[in-house]
Amino acid sequence: MGLLEIIVIATGLSLDAFAISISMGLLVTKSKPIQYFIPGIYFGLFQAIMPYIGFRTGTLFAARVQTFEHWITFVLLAVIGGKMIKDSFSKDTEKTDKNPFGWIKMMLLALATSIDALAVGVTFAFFPINIYLAIVIIGVTTFCISVAGVKIGNMFGSKYKSKAEFIGGAVLVLLGIKIVAEHLC
Questions:
Q1: Measured between alpha carbons, how far is 159 from 169 in angstroms, rounded to an integer?
Q2: d(Cα 112, Cα 170) in Å, to the nearest integer?
Q3: Is the pTM of this model over 0.85?
Q4: What distance in Å separates the CA atoms of residue 178 and residue 22, rounded to the nearest whole number?
Q5: 3-state secondary structure of 1
Q6: What is the DSSP letter of 75?
Q7: How is 88-106 classified by DSSP, letter by letter?
Q8: Cβ atoms of 21 and 153 closer than 8 Å
Q9: Most distant CA pair in the chain: distance in Å?
Q10: Distances, alpha carbon 6 to alpha carbons 78, 82, 114, in Å
């Protein structure tokens, strides 16, 4: 497997993280530069770690996870997205999540977006590939795309602040539904 194929795979794996990063960027009200990097760090690390785990554990583990990984992803995204939607209807603006980048939320989102990378890691085991180069490319690509997503989301969030949390939550729920639908069809 060549470098171009790895870059294409890395880009494909990072698209879920990109969509979630946009919704996270909608919630940024004060531009703190570190907030642009937080999703990239979490998503990039998880997207790099999961293919390595898949590569090392082989097809036995992946075959078990593949049968229900889309449900895990859906539940994680639906719970977080549902909470965001619920909070968007709150009259009390102080009650909404002041830190959309809390470590628990970020860990759950990173896990939800990286489960498919586990299966990719298993497929890597069947090709002559430098797994370390592959995981670096996947991690860096996801990091960069996620940072861009937060910035894009923040640009729109400052214009549409009142609806940003609802839109962000809806994106997460719809992404979860899309993932389930893809696996069921």
A1: 17
A2: 16
A3: no
A4: 17
A5: coil
A6: H
A7: HT-S-GGGS-S-TT-HHHH
A8: yes
A9: 56
A10: 30, 34, 16
Q: Which two tokens stand for residue 145?
A: 């795309």
List Cβ<8 Å contacts ≥24 apart for 32-40.
35/101, 35/150, 36/147, 36/150, 36/151, 36/154, 37/147, 38/101, 38/106, 38/150, 39/101, 39/106, 39/109, 39/146, 39/147, 39/149, 39/150, 40/142, 40/143, 40/144, 40/145, 40/146, 40/147, 40/150
pLDDT tens-place values along the chain, 185 residues long = 788 889 998 998 888 889 889 888 877 766 677 888 999 999 999 999 999 998 888 756 656 666 777 787 788 778 877 877 787 777 554 444 566 778 898 999 999 888 888 878 887 887 788 999 999 999 999 999 999 999 888 887 666 655 666 776 787 788 788 878 887 87
DSSP readout, 137-163?
Answer: HHHHHHHHHHHHHHHHHHHHHHHSHHH
At residue 21, the 3 state secondary structure works out as helix
Written as one letter, the residue type at 42 is Y
As given in the structure block, the two tokens for residue 75 are 């539940």
100 within 8 A of 29, measured Cβ to Cβ: no
